[in-house]
Amino acid sequence: MNRAILFTDARLVCPERGEREGELLVVDGVIADGPAPADALRVDCRGRVLAPALIDIGVARIDRAAARAGGIVRVAPMPDQVPVLDEPGAVQRLALIGRPDLWIHPIAAATRGLAGADLAEMAICLSAGARAVGTGRGWIADSGVMHRVLSYARDLDVTVITHAEDGGLTRGAVASEGETASRLGLPAAPAVAEALAIARDLMLAEETGARLHLRAVTTAAGFALVRAAKARGVRVTCGITPAHLLLSDNAMSDFRTFAHLSPPLRSETDRHAALAALADGTIDLLCSGHDPRGPEEKRLPFADASPGAADAAALLALALGLARDGRVSLPRLFALLARAPAALLGLDTGALLPGLPGDVILLDPDAPWRIDADTLPGKAGNTPFDGLPVQGKLLRMWKGGRELV
Amino acid sequence: MTQSDHRPGTLIPGGAVFPHRHLTGIEGLEPHEITFLLDEAETWVEANRTRAAPDRRLSGFTQINAFFENSTRTLLSFEIAGKRLGADVVNMHAAQSSVKKGETLIDTAQTLNAMRADVIVIRHMSSGAVRLIADKVDCPVLNAGDGRHEHPTQALLDALTIRRRLGGIAHKRVVICGDLLHSRVARSNILALTALAAEVRVCAPSTLMPPAIERFGVTAFSDFDRAMEGADVVMMLRLQTERMAGGYVPSSREYHLRYGLTLERLAKHAPGALIMHPGPMNRGVEIDSAVADHVEQSAITEQVQMGVAVRMACLDVLTRRARGVKGWA
Fold first, then answer.
1. Chain A residues with CB inside 8 Å of B124's CB?
2. Tell me, what's the ipTM?
């Protein structure tokens, strides 16, 4: 392996430095300044985009093939694994199995067994490789417990990642209330379930001074709360998946279980609020919510099917569509996909700055392809975007200056 | 439409007048297709009354009634309908069968398919389950109720009852009252009656009203007396016993106070209205016995009678392609 790589004739897209044409030097796996050594391996980018590789927060499963296809070099798996990530052995094992190609930064359970009752051993799990703590795909119903979780996490300066849906309202529900759910006869919860949970978690975060990350905010009322809290100086960030930006609840028509998600798809009004929140900076990061589910979990009546979508492999292309539509600039897009998720995990990466890891992707933002559930790389093809034509193809990728093939 | 309109080889399977392979719901049916099924059912009403010459047009055909949820009257109605047409009717009570042993719905569907059923009638507790099975089998599938989604033959038999009693459906004011949230009967009825240009009013406490119901083209009420004003038809829905205990309404007697159909209420707000109920009734809860048994106005037993005719019509129409009926094959 060459010690140094010089990317030439690149369209460099950096969340910190913006977009420019030029060269990028990586020496010993780290982005470097200054003149390239004479023996540097030269990679001619032919004017294509060179950008930071993606970091995907909150995946349900480790799926190397999907991550590789999606230009993702780091993932943060949810704590609701089997076994639950509430003890150091499980955390450490997961933190090590992906290297060198895929770096895994587990989100440890905030409460023991994710039962929402007793504090989990957060500090021990952090020392074993966890980079955040979370509530998984459930909600901590007891406000007293949530208060203690946030207080304790503040001491450790670790972000608490929550799933914000009031469990009382969403019990038994598989959809968001609206015309589609009513027509299909699906048990549904009012969308306000999200804002209710966000309001409580925000107040507790403000009270304790803890860092709070809302895994997916999907409703207009939810964004309004987050926007106001940020203005007050509350240490809150929030994420969203492409599905909630690009689809509304009518994607569930014909009982399409690939559109059975958690949180569920919302109304068109909420979707537009999400696009506005993306544009005004209320949304901090984009994640795939990658949750591959095979036919045994999806080829069932809608309410009996497991929620979740396998969108890691298509995350980049779907996100590039947002830039093409003028919703965000390319540098901001890679802040959403790399820089912000890195910051959440306390990692200094996700930008093309000297001294940062040489985790970069080379892509053709215009190359067309069609998302196909049957051929999408990964453990399963349960994507609500099956059949959608998209643009943007990953050409090559490097992790720490080493090309992944 | 006459046969001469069709060029050979251009016919859609199932005939141009009813181009559907399955009957999974009222949604997706055009008004004229609903009317066609009602007209077909009409002929069976007379045949069932006279029982003159038995019609064995489904002779040699196997009809499987796969009921994943307990049912007495709908199952019986489908069984009688099939047998009157000469079909070999097999009942599969899946509620206590291999499904309990963990077999998936798709596997069950493929098993039924491998047994070469000619028509499958399905009831299931999950919305959308019937559509899922219909995609996996080679024969026509009839939805006998899926979760809270649809119960199309019930809506057809209700429409037929109204049409026969009132001479038509268009512009008639129909009030549907009860647990609309959990009711597939209500959904199918709303779709069928609005398609046939009735004025549909729905009435329920807000805890039992589906969200965005006005998007179905109906007017929603929580006050039963106001909803009933000037009604031509009052259709009561069954309130499930488990929902009376405080989860959705405080008690059955409070429900009766606000939503029970009594003779006084009927006389005051809709004196001549036709009274309907899909059954089974909770007498004294949603409907008083004096109303249910009203000699002139109650159509409840007639609904049951229409049920057999409607199901015979559906079984006949959906199997025409397989039977090679001229213009359908």
1. 301
2. 0.89
